[in-house]
C-alpha cells in the first residue's frame, strides 16, 4: 500500500512505530549541500554478518511497521540494499526508500522498487548540477513503472524545478502518482556552508526523537539528525549493537529514556528554559549535555510517562 508524505509523517509521530536504516555513507552524486557529507568513496558495509544481524533485528521487531532506507544513497550498496529490502518486506514491513535517482533505468533496481511502498526522490539545483536530468527522469519513470508512490523532495526555493521535471516525466497528470515535498536546506555536513539552523519556538516539541536510526556499522541513534548519525552530538542519543538481540536492547533503551520521551512530548525548552533562539536540535543537545537536574526529577519524568500511557 502506497504511503504518502502525510502518511509517513503520521507514522513517524507514533513513537516506536518506524525506524530508518542508514545503509551507507556512499553516494556517487556528491551534492554540494549534502547534509551527511557523502562521497563516492565514502565508507559502506564492511561487516556483512553484523549488517545482516541488524536487518534481522529490524525485521523481527514487532512494533516497527515502517522502515525507511537512506544513506548516502542506498542504491550505492546494491548487495546490502537488495538483502535489506528482501528481508524486511518478507517480514511485512512497509518500506520507504530515499535516493538521488542516480541508478536511472538500471534493471537490477526493479526488484528493489517493486517491494517498496514509497520512494523519496530528491532534486534541486545542487542535484541537477551533478546528475543529468535524463538520468533522474529515467529513475522517476522506473519507480512509477514498479508501482511505488513517488515523493519528490526539494529545497523550498527549487520546488518549481521539481514540478517541471515531473511534467517532463509524466505529463500534466503527474499528481495522480507523485507529490512534491518542500523542505528547508539542512545545515549539516556540507549543507553547513549553505544554510543556517532554523530557529525553534520555546514550546516546540521534537516529533522525531522516537524514530530511531540504525546505521550499517551498528550505531543506533534516537533521531535522524545528520550530525548525530555521523558521530556528533550528545552520547545519550547513541547506542551500539552488533546482533539482533543487542539491537532490540538498544531500541528499548532509547524508547525507555524518560528525558528523550519528555523532549518528544513537551519539547526541550520545557526541561531547560532559556538559551538563545536557535534550532530545536541545539536546545535538545543543551538538555542532554548539561543534565536535567537530580535523579528524583528523572524519576518524576518516568512517572509522568507511565501516567500518560495509562490515559
UniProtKB/TrEMBL annotation:
One of its GO terms (molecular function) is iron-sulfur cluster binding. Keywords: Iron, Iron-sulfur, Metal-binding, S-adenosyl-L-methionine. Gene3D superfamilies: Aldolase class I. InterPro entries: Aldolase_TIM, rSAM, rSAM_sf. The keyword Metal-binding applies. This is Radical SAM protein. It comes from Streptomyces tuirus.
Amino acid at each position: 500500500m502506497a504511503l504518502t508524505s502525510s502518511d509517513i509523517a503520521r507514522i513517524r509521530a507514533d513513537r516506536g512505530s518506524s525506524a530508518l536504516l542508514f545503509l551507507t555513507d556512499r553516494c556517487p552524486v556528491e551534492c554540494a549541500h549534502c547534509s551527511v557529507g557523502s562521497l563516492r568513496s565514502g565508507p559502506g558495509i564492511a561487516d556483512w554478518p553484523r549488517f545482516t544481524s541488524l536487518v534481522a533485528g529490524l525485521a523481527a521487531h514487532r512494533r516497527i511497521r515502517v522502515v525507511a532506507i537512506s544513506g548516502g544513497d542506498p542504491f550505492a550498496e546494491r548487495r546490502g540494499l537488495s538483502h535489506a529490502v528482501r528481508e524486511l518486506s518478507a517480514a511485512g514491513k512497509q518500506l520507504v526508500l530515499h535516493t538521488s535517482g542516480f541508478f536511472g533505468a538500471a534493471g537490477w533496481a526493479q526488484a528493489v522498487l517493486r517491494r517498496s511502498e514509497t520512494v523519496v526522490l530528491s532534486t534541486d539545483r545542487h542535484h541537477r548540477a551533478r546528475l543529468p536530468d535524463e538520468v533522474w527522469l529515467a529513475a522517476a519513470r522506473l519507480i512509477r513503472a514498479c508501482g511505488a508512490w513517488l515523493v519528490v523532495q526539494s529545497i523550498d526555493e527549487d520546488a518549481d524545478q521539481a514540478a517541471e521535471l515531473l511534467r517532463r516525466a509524466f505529463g500534466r497528470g503527474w499528481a495522480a502518482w507523485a507529490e512534491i515535498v518542500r523542505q528547508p536546506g539542512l545545515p549539516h555536513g556540507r549543507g553547513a556552508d549553505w544554510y543556517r539552523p532554523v530557529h525553534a519556538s520555546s514550546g516546540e516539541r521534537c516529533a522525531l526523537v522516537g524514530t530511531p536510526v540504525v546505521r550499517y556499522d551498528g550505531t543506533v541513534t534516537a533521531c535522524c539528525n545528520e550530525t548525530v548519525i555521523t558521530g556528533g552530538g550528545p552520547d545519550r542519543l547513541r547506542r551500539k549493537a552488533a546482533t539482533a538481540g543487542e539491537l532490540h536492547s538498544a531500541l528499548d533503551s532509547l524508547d525507555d529514556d524518560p528525558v528523550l520521551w519528555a523532549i518528544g512530548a513537551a519539547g526541550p525548552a520545557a526541561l531547560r528554559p532559556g538559551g538563545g533562539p536557535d534550532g530545536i536540535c541545539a536546545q535538545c543537545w543543551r538538555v542532554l549535555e548539561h543534565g536535567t537536574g537530580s535523579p528524583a526529577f528523572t524519576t518524576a519524568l518516568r512517572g509522568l510517562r507511565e501516567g500518560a500511557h495509562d490515559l
